[in-house]
Structures are given as structure tokens and as C-alpha cells.
Amino acid sequence: TYTSYYLQRPRGGVWSQAEVLTDACRWPKLTLDVSGTLHTVGLQYVHGDVDYAIVHKLRTPGGDWTAAERIPGALVPGSAIPVSMVDSAGRLHVLWDCYPCWAVGTTYHATRTADGHWTTGPGPAVSWTRLNDRYLRAAIGPGDVMHSVWYDGAISNGPQDSLKLMYSRKLPGALWSAPVQLAAAQGYEVLREAPLLLVGQRAEVCV
Counting C-beta atoms within 10 Å of the first and last residue's C-beta, which end of the chain has fewer, N or C? Predict the structure, then answer.
């Protein structure tokens, strides 16, 4: 079983005691919105290691953590590591990759409004086929333009040990753009670690 803990330190203060944040949940992400509300999302095992759900909890300033809720559309075999970000209107965006029956991968993009309403749609287009060739990462920049990078290791894209670093972006109100390749490498270990993604205040994208 997996347990996540949360602790905090006020400015000029000391660290709080650790408290249980989520139980039976892996790879938690923590995001702060414009109102000061904390959001956490993570991968929760539902039926052993067969089905998974992406769950969400929040904590308003001075409040307690809410009970975990499952993000609609995020309960399928193979749902994987989520990433989260908040736009200028306070909407929470959650992306995750999915491997239904370990076939061709798919990504999803869920959005939560400030009043708690969720919508789920497609994320960046990918074509990977192997478990470790993913590492989806996302960030939001000026003008609420979203950016995402990941590894694509689909056999159809070359030798089985070929990995490609891919990129896509999403303008407000639009779909995710067609992926473009940023780099490639022969040898499974070369691009094994998760990529890092940062968007600056002048919209510069760093990977």
C-alpha cells in the first residue's frame, strides 16, 4: 500500500507535523490556485493493481482537506501518473496517460471549475505502446497557453529501443496541437528519466 503525507511551514515559522494526505495513492501532485486553495491529485488503486482512478482533494486556506473524489472518466485499466496545473481563472487542469489493456496509449485532459464541475476530454495525441515510454509532463504559461512533453517509444516510430521526446501545446479554447519531435535517441536507457518542463513569464518554454 502507498500513503502520501502533507506538511507545511508558514513564512518565518516551523514545519508542521506530517498528516496523512491520501491512502492507497501513488504519485501525488500538489497545486496552488489563485485563491490560495491547495489541490492534490494522485493515482489510486481500485481493484488491486488492475484498475486505477485519478483522485482529487482540496484544502481551502485555514480549512481541512476534503474527502477524495474520483475525476470523471479516470477509472480505466492502466490510468497512469497524473500532472496538474491551474490557469489564471482558477480552473484546475489534470492530464494523465492511459494504457487500456496495455495497447496503444491515450491521454486525457480534465478541467475543474471553481464550483467543482468537471469536464474530461482528449489530451495530447500520442502513439506509444510500452509502459515506461511515457512520463507525460505539462505546464501553463502566459495567456493560459498549456504545454506538454513526453517520451514516445512506439515500435511504429522506429526500432523498439528508440525513444522520442515529443511536444504539444494547447491555446485557450482549442484542441492540443499536433505533436512535434524535440529529440530522439537510440538505446532504451538514454531518455529513461522523466523530462522537466518550465514555462517562463515571457512564454519561453524550457525542456
Answer: N
What is the b/e burial string over 35-70, where b = at least 16 CB atoms within 10 angstroms of the residue's CB?
eebbbbbbbbeeeeeeebbbbbbbbeeeeebeebee
Predicted TM-score of the model (pTM): 0.84
Please state, in angstroms and rounded to a whole number, the distance separating the CA atoms of residues 149 and 156.
19
